[in-house]
Amino acid sequence: MSGKAARIVLSEKQEEILQSMIRSTTLSQRLVQRASVILLAFSGELNEDIAAHVKLGRKQVGLWRRRWKESFDSLVSIECREPRARLRRAVEDVLGDAPRSGAYGKFTAEQITLIMAIACEPPELSGRPVAEWTHAELAAEAVKRKIVPSISASQVGRYLRAAELQPHRSKYWLNTTEKDNDVFQTQVEVVCQAWREAPGLYFQENTHTVSVDEMPGLQALERIAETIPMQTGQPKRIEYEYKRHGTLCLIGNWHVVKGQMISPTIKQTRTESDFSWHIHNTVRTDPSAGWVFVLDNLNVHCSATLVGYVAKLDGIDNSTLGKKGRNGILKSVASRQAFLLDRSHRVRFVYLPKHTSWLNQIEIVFGIVSRRVMRRGNFKSLKELKQRLLDFIDYFNTTFAKPFHWRHTGRPVRSDTIKRPSTWKENWAASRKNKQTSALVA
């Protein structure tokens, strides 16, 4: 006795994509047939009539109807979140075949696991003077250790891709120097709280929150030959050799609420007096307002000169500050930071934990400056470099600069609570992967 056919539902976009698929002259015949099956089923045709129309078996028609129904929620989720091109690829994937099992594997699960274990080892342990493995070297090492009598480099690559192992890739990362996790957590939350408080402080208390840092070593490099403009089939060609005309340091301010770079300082040095003058020049743009500067732990960011400047603004007698390296507020970096952190001051500072530049918003802006100005720049003098930086900052502020939408609270980021439903093929792949994992463990 025949079962009940799966009911087909289509959105307007899905129907348009299926219609374009059956009109395509480059799409495979299988996908065209299956797209026709879904469209005919949506119009209310019976499986027998659809099978005769597309020249497929009735059971195959029923199978693709069920697979579409199983994948419909996933396609709707993609349609709501992703562009049309991504939905088109998802529809083609749903109507595509699952990978075939193929012939039985030549190597056992134990052999494959041992090859993966080699890939996870440093090459130095095998006496190879290289920093990373290649597929050919892994294949040779597996033979040398008598794990397998022979294996090709391409087969090793397939096993690594299946296991999502990439010995040829690496990423740099930096450990914080703070060993107490609770202290580090508190420091990160203080910085994130400064970002979240910024709009309220600005609109209600006339207090600016500014992200500050230096971008040192900006080189004025002049190419020794003219750049050749791009032509059809050829990119722009830039001379490799250059002349050096010195370096500059950009001390930048990123206004967190306005989303603007304000009062930049560009000099050849970044001394204690340079930074103190930079803060003074920034505060001078709105002398009656409050200021919160978020910055890292560089020694010039908590200098005796800076402490003296903040004390003068608040009417504190310099004679009460003590002496640097001996006593009082000026005694040490910690004591100076504690004074500059004081929320009662009209100008105060918030310090990042060490090795956490990713928390400082201006680092994003510096990345833009590096890509848009410095990377392919050609500067005949320091004066020209300085003017180019100032011109770019004006251009940046008036065109595409905007406040960053900071959502990190300082707590570990949680995964999205709304998970996209899976298609039939994703469910099939997950079950197959579980079976393979069980086999490897066994």
Question: Overview of this structure, please?
Answer:
The chain is of the alpha/beta class and 442 residues long. Among the domains are: 12-94, Arc Repressor Mutant, subunit A, CATH 1.10.10; 109-171, no CATH class; 182-296 and 352-398, no CATH class. Helices cover 46% and strands 11% of the residues. The chain contains 15 helices and 6 strands. The chain has helices spanning 12-23, 29-42, 47-54, 58-81, 84-94, 109-119, 135-144, 153-162, 181-205, 272-283, 304-313, 333-341, 362-374, 382-398, 424-441, and strands spanning 207-223, 242-255, 260-261, 265-267, 290-295, 347-351. Strands 1, 2, 3, 4, 5 and 6 form a 6-stranded mixed sheet that branches. Strand 2 and strand 3 (260-261) form a beta hairpin. Helix 1 packs across helix 2 (29-42), helix 2 runs antiparallel to helix 3 and helix 4 (58-81) runs antiparallel to helix 5 (84-94). The relative contact order is 0.09. The model has no long low-confidence stretch (mean pLDDT 90).
